[in-house]
Amino acid sequence: MEENLIKTCLHDRHVKQGALMSPFGGFDMPIQYKGITEEHNAVRQNVGVFDVSHMGEVRISGPDAYKYVSHIFVNDVTGAPDGQIFYGMMCYENGGTVDDLLVYKVNDQEYFLVINASNIAKDVEWIKKNAEGYDVKVVNESDYYGEVAVQGPKAEETLEKILGLELKDIPFYNFKVFTIDGEDVIVSRTGYTGEDGFEIYGSHSYIQGVWDKLMEAGVQPCGLGCRDTLRFEVGLPLYGDELSPEISPIEASLSMFVKLDKPEFIGKEALAKQKAEGVARRIVGLELDGNAIPRHGYPVEVDGKQVGEITTGYRSISTGKSVAMAMIDKPYDKLGTKVEVRIRKKTFPATVVKKRFYDKNYKK
């Protein structure tokens, strides 16, 4: 099994730097370098860089590109200026989630989709299958692109200084294409950490050069361990935990990204029904009393009866509290509801809270 893991273009650098490597989404990825806490704090307080070359990239182009993206994407890209980015989901007819993704609008006839590593093959097949009857070309560019995410309050000044790129005028959730040494490099400003930050997409050799320059400048390399603690603290979902074929965006408490007032899209009917009638369960935040640490899969109970389970849980590095996201049955999902989390043979009291445990610090 281990031999079949895909290596990113930065793999040998991680190994040389002594990173703890582990399988993730079919890739051999760095989990940590110095340690999750130190890397987490670097991103919250200063700047850190992640290898996210495992993410997938799909380009959809052609006369029907806008129409087709609208057909498969729950968010509404209508009338957006070129260079804008949208977060949302692709859904099955029953409302379950194919994947959550970012849609980059190049222009009305070209969109760049960024999808999750573990879903690349499945997503590409699904996108191609549903493109029948649309005048579009679907190209999987995942093997071409390497990607790094530079995150933290000092991300902008660090990148401007090290790479000499003008980034100040890229607004949040927008991107720009730079031509560098004859190749197109995409730089976007989204961030999956709750901090300001940029994603850089380019050829493998270009991304290796960026990584080397950042290392020379002393930027902290960060693994997927703290990527998870960072995204979790600000209430951002991870596919496979808070979203899945069995979990719709409505159940994941992400209905703000589902635009029912736009024309037909795959899953619209099911999602409209869920929105109108309500769902039987949804993702909420939990705060535990004391120091017990909740983990994925632990049961949530009320009076000895299971009413849900933990999807992600940690002792929050930024707040010091034991917190979790959990899928909870109604009516136990209301703010302030008292529940218990079962950790092995014991239960620990917890309270339903908002699922954002730490305030985001994006560039306004």
Describe the structure.
The chain has helices at residues 11-16, 36-45, 65-72, 120-130, 155-163, 204-216, 224-233, 268-277; strands at residues 20-24, 27-32, 48-51, 56-61, 85-91, 97-107, 110-115, 137-140, 146-151, 175-180, 183-188, 197-202, 220-222, 281-288, 299-302, 305-315, 322-329, 338-343, 346-353. The chain is α+β, with helices and mostly antiparallel strands and 364 residues long. Helix 2 (36-45) crosses helix 7. The longest helix has 13 residues, at 204-216. The protein is globular. The mean pLDDT is 97.
Notable features of this structure?
364 residues; alpha+beta; 8 helices; globular
Task: Give a short overview.
By secondary structure, the chain is α+β, with helices and mostly antiparallel strands. It contains eight helices and 19 strands. The chain has helices spanning 11-16, 36-45, 65-72, 120-130, 155-163, 204-216, 224-233, 268-277; strands spanning 20-24, 27-32, 48-51, 56-61, 85-91, 97-107, 110-115, 137-140, 146-151, 175-180, 183-188, 197-202, 220-222, 281-288, 299-302, 305-315, 322-329, 338-343, 346-353.
Average pLDDT, rounded to a whole number, is: 97
Report strand order across the widest sheet. 10-11-12-9-3-13
Quantity of strands, as a count: 19
Number of H- or I-type helical stretches: 8
Rg, nearest Å: 21 Å
Cα distance, first to last residue?
45 Å
Helix content: 10-25%
Class by helix and strand content? alpha+beta
Topology as a string of helices (H) and strands (E): HEEHEEHEEEHEEHEEEHEHHEEEEEE
Which overall shape is indicated by the principal axes computed on the Cα atoms?
A: globular
Biggest sheet statistics? 6 strands, mixed
Strand content: 25-35%
Low-pLDDT sequence parts: none
